[in-house]
Amino acid sequence: MKVVRHGVWETNSSSTHSITIGNQINQEPQLRTNEHGYVEVYCDDYGWGGGPLDTVQEKLEYLVCYLINCYIPGCYEPYNFYTSDFYHRICEVLNVKGITVKNEGYIDHQSCDCNNDITEYIDDNESLKKYLLDPTIHVIISNDNC
């Protein structure tokens, strides 16, 4: 396993969100779609537990929740998920018409860090595809109380 840490700062927060990475891309996505062919995303509250997130739908919902709640390019610019590069890339990688976000959700504040965010690991379509479709990749949500 490769551990990547750069720009990391320490806090006394006890929540941790980790992504484990394998090397398979063979999963046919089982996605919840509406009558118009759009993937329906229900963001959860990602705080101290609730993982692991294993399916394409679960990993997509975590990523979308992260992008809506945490991702701010340059940390100061306004961000609109529906007009973003990530929105279009996700649709392309999953070969879907679009995404409908049904609720806002929540990501623990300590997992939102503009100096060390998930987007730097999925910065191209191949790594985004790997994150979403590789069944050996899991999002682990935990804390030091578990």
Overall body shape: globular
Structural domain count: 1
Instruction: Specify the number of helices.
Output: 3
Percent of residues in β-strands: 15-25%
SSE diagram, text form:
Layout (H helix, E strand, L loop, with lengths): L14 E6 L17 E5 L2 E2 L9 H14 L15 H10 L3 E6 L2 E2 L17 H9 L4 E6 L3
Parallel strand pairs: 2-4, 3-5
Antiparallel strand pairs: 1-6
Structure notes:
The protein has 146 residues and is of the alpha/beta class. It has one domain. It is built from three helices and six strands; from the N terminus they run βββααββαβ. The chain has helices spanning 56-69, 85-94, 125-133, and strands at residues 15-20, 38-42, 45-46, 98-103, 106-107, 138-143. It starts with 14 loop residues before the first strand and ends with a strand.
Descriptive keywords:
single chain; 146 residues; alpha/beta; two-stranded antiparallel ribbon; two-stranded parallel ribbon; 23% helix; globular
In short:
The protein is built from 3 helices and 6 strands.
